[in-house]
Amino acid sequence: MKILYAVQATGNGHISRAMTLLPHLQQYGTVDIFLSGSNANLELDAPVKYRSRGISLFYNCEGGLDYRKMIKIINPLRISREIRDLPVENYDLVLNDFDHITSAACARKRIPSVHFGHQASFQSALAPRPEKKSRTGEWILANFVKAPYRAGYHFEKYDAGIFEPVVKKEILEANPVIKDHITIYLPSYCESQLKTLFEKFSDHRFHIFSRESKSIREEKNLLFFPVDKELFTGSLVQCTGIICGAGFETPAEAIHLGKKILAIPISGQYEQQCNAAALKKAGISCLDRIDDRFPIHFGQWINDRRPPVKKDYSNSIRESLDYIFSLPVPAVPGTDLTLHQSPLVSC
After folding, report:
1. Tally of domains within the chain
2. How far apart are CA 145 and CA 151, in angstroms?
3. Who is most buried in 19, 29, 96, 202, counting CB within 10 A?
């Protein structure tokens, strides 16, 4: 079986999930990767067959999106050419982790695909939303990727076809401890803003992971790190708690480890507002934004003695892949052969 795995490279969560899932997908056949996007700090530790700048999100230094940079990088002619040229018809299965180019290529060539990943969970109305929905945000979640089949990941199994998060092996095998630092991962802020914000809490030590940091350095009560998988995992496993965006992979790893979480969604990113709604529903602390009241909120969070939310996410990979390879997706374009009829499924 030939599998095309389209991976969105905006942020690091999609890449982290891909690196975890790839060895499992390779048990079913040959996997080629299409990496789409240009705003990730992690490198995909696998051969990339096709590469595109895609349609990416970029962040300013104040907790929000950099719309000017996002618009500047979009090239409709390039995107149209890549939609035309991506050879989705050469594959028995197309897994699409939130990439528009792959979705459009499949639609153009009438190739069925599986919308696969966290964003696929929002195809269900049962996935949590904020009290005030965004019409634009809902339209993007519904239309950025179109596919006849979906397999989503979320913090809970809110609906059929939604599975618990994929957590990397290093987290699954870790023995969490509590040391004296708080891990910070707020990629929509720059170092200077993070330094000003956290150095005032001189009674606490912070490990700050920044897209601007090129090496490890210490300033007062702050230890700055580059965005690195091993360094981040080590910090998370040993932290007192983590302050992070309301993304998906990082909160999921913290929940699996039973770490205290304070999540702050990126301003203007509706998906993160939806994630925050889900985290709040689970009893996890969230803020809408960082403002002048942040010291009060930080004090309440760090002094909260309630046990952190902890869930075992170790079974998701097998459950989700069993589901995907039982879907009636044509395994050979133009035939009625389905994935669950293929002997490769039993590998």
Report:
1. 2
2. 13
3. 96
